[in-house]
Amino acid sequence: MPKAPCPCGSSLTYDDCCALIHADIAKALRAEQLMRSRYSAFVLENEDYLLTSWHPDTRPSNLDFDSQSKWLGLKIKDTVAGLEDDKEGQVSFVARYKVSGKAQRIVENSHFIKLDGIWQYHSATDN
């Protein structure tokens, strides 16, 4: 039986891609990897991982998932810094989804900070 493709849009299966980072956040060596893993976590409604990967200075106490939302895809537009040896990075992306059958999209520039050697989502600005 074939394994499910990763929701992040890579050519890998979920087990060989974002599942590894969901199990151990330290496996995200670059900000873009953390971004992709967070998108997959939204698709899978993995609140624990989303909160764990959120910088403590900006982390909400909980998340509310919309049961009417269906995530359709992620496209990375640009990445600035965010490599293994960097302390900060930015990832610009478009995430497509539907709510009650109506197409929507998020266009965002996410800011990531490395905290104690672990990439964390910090904040975002709309593009």
- Low confidence ranges: none
The order of strands across the largest sheet is 1-2-3-4
Summarize the helix and strand pattern as letters: HHHEEEE
CATH class identity: Alpha Beta
Q: Which secondary-structure class do the elements indicate?
A: alpha+beta
Model description:
- This protein is an alpha+beta fold and 127 residues long.
- The chain is 20% helix and 38% strand.
- The chain has helices at 18-23, 31-44, 47-52; strands at residues 69-81, 88-99, 102-115, 118-126.
- The longest helix has 14 residues, at 31-44.
- The termini are far apart.
- The mean pLDDT is 95.
Q: What are its keywords?
A:
Nuclear Transport Factor 2, Chain: A; four-stranded antiparallel beta sheet; 4 strands; 38% strand
At a glance:
This protein is α+β, with helices and mostly antiparallel strands. The protein is built from 3 helices and 4 strands; from the N terminus they run αααββββ.
Task: Note the topology.
Layout: H1 18-23, H2 31-44, H3 47-52, E1 69-81, E2 88-99, E3 102-115, E4 118-126
Antiparallel strand pairs: 1-2, 2-3, 3-4
